[in-house]
Amino acid sequence: MSMAGNLRKVTSLGRVGGLRKVARLGRRRARVDLSHPARSPLGSAVVNCVIYQDGVRVPEAGDLVEAVERVRKSDDGFVWLGLHEPTDQEFAGIAELFDLHPLAVEDAVEAHQRPKLERYGDTLFAVFKTVCYVEHKELTATSEVVNTGEIMVFIGPAFVITVRHGRHGSLGPLREELEADPKQLAKGPAAVLHAIADHVVDDYLSVTDAVQEDIDQVETGVFAENGARLDPGRIYQLKRELLELKRAVAPLDRPIQELATRPIRVIDPEIQAYFRDVSDHLLRATEQIAAFDELLNSILQAHLAQVSVAQNEDMRKITAWAALIAVPTMVTGVYGMNFAFMPELHWKFGYPLVLVVIAVACLVLYRGFKRNDWL
After folding, report:
1. Which of the ends of the chain has fewer CB neighbours closer than 10 A, N or C?
2. Are 70 and 33 in contact (CB under 8 A)?
3. Quick one: which of 204, 93, 83 has its CA closest to 154?
4. How confident is the model at residue 152 (pLDDT cuts 50, 70, 90)?
């Protein structure tokens, strides 16, 4: 029987009492591997459901409720259930089966939560913000740089439930890495929680490295020869995307600190040492984001200063050309007045002399402006 196929029926039921009937129907369905798809090919929110004992994946057998009860009675096994964007109806039967707190269930279904860590009896509920760098050929004022999602994790003495929101952040590869290390996986649900936290924080570092390349590109453009012509919208867009990244990373510091230092019933003290390593990586990501924010502020100020300098240069050139034009305008304006007695008005060489005076005056002004870099 496929436990995953059975579980699909569980998510469609609001009561656990109907699971026995579902199990009999599920025996007719061929086994489907749900490790990697974002949504189950069975049409539900279930991505995968696996039993682990002594860090080894156990072949699916028997009814789901019986499997959960058997694992709860065992000291070295747990169930890992993976979901992707479940609805209230899909999650109702699972919440009742694992006795999940209604407030945590509401947060897991609704999503859009801040990173946090909450305890409900023997159950620990953690929220992680996942981030993904959006590839783009050229950074524009409307480019999407960072895309975010969420992973909610329920862990108890004998189960792990992961609820993922968003199109990225698949846990399939992470599950395979853990299965390749049975010794670590044998440490129980806390080992899975650590692996997810480490995976999420490593993605933070990857995204910050990619964002740094965009910042370097903008910085190079600002200090280029025509840096004043750069669209400032690119800088503002980077700041907006960096703010979204900061909202995902910064609030996670307190939950990771609690996991690393505070005694928690479902977290083995040996696993807490691993969370301290995650905390170090998270601190590095937080410091990088803060440095990027300051750097973008400096780049923006430098760009505005360059724009101001360029405008001053333009005004100087305009003023210089206006002064050059003012000389002939003044002279011709004087001799354009309708007076009978004016110097050299009837002189044979008066007209050529005026032209020479205008040309010499303009030449002197031009050389003076050119020498002072006004032209």
Report:
1. C
2. no
3. 83
4. very high
Provide the token pair at 208: 């910050």
Backbone torsions φ then ψ of 75, nearest 5 degrees: -95, -5
Dihedrals phi, psi of 164, to nearest 5 degrees:
-110, 140
Beta bridge partners of 152: 127, 163
d(CA 90, CA 86): 6
φ, ψ of residue 82 in degrees (nearest 5): -110, 130
What average pLDDT score do residues 94-120 get?
89
Q: State how far the Cα of 107 lies from the Cα of 127, in Å rounded to an integer.
A: 9
Can you say how many angstroms the Cα of residue 363 is from the centroid of all Cα atoms in its chain?
60
Cα three-residue angle 152-154-155, rounded to 5 degrees = 140
- Residue among 324, 328, 318, 315 nearest 366 (CA): 324
Nearest to 130 by CA among 183, 198, 188, 72: 198
Q: Which residues contact 241 (CB under 8 A, 6 or more apart)?
A: 144, 145, 146, 211
Extended strands (E) in 97-141: 116-120, 123-133
Which residues have C-beta within 8 Å of that of residue 152, sequence separation ≥ 6?
Answer: 107, 108, 111, 113, 125, 126, 127, 128, 162, 163, 164, 165
> Among candidates 123, 250, 104, which has minimal Cα distance to 190?
123
Cα-based distances in Å from 241 to 82, 139, 201, 207, 208: 29, 12, 18, 11, 11
Structure tokens at 189: 């649900």
In angstroms, the CA 274 to CA 268 distance is 10
Centre a 10 Å sphere on the Cβ of residue 89 and count the other Cβ atoms it contains: 13
| Burial class, 26, CB count within 10 angstroms (exposed 0-12 / middle 13-18 / buried 19+) | buried
Structure tokens at 223: 């200090």
* DSSP 3-state of 101: coil
Whats the size of the chain, residue-wise?
Answer: 375
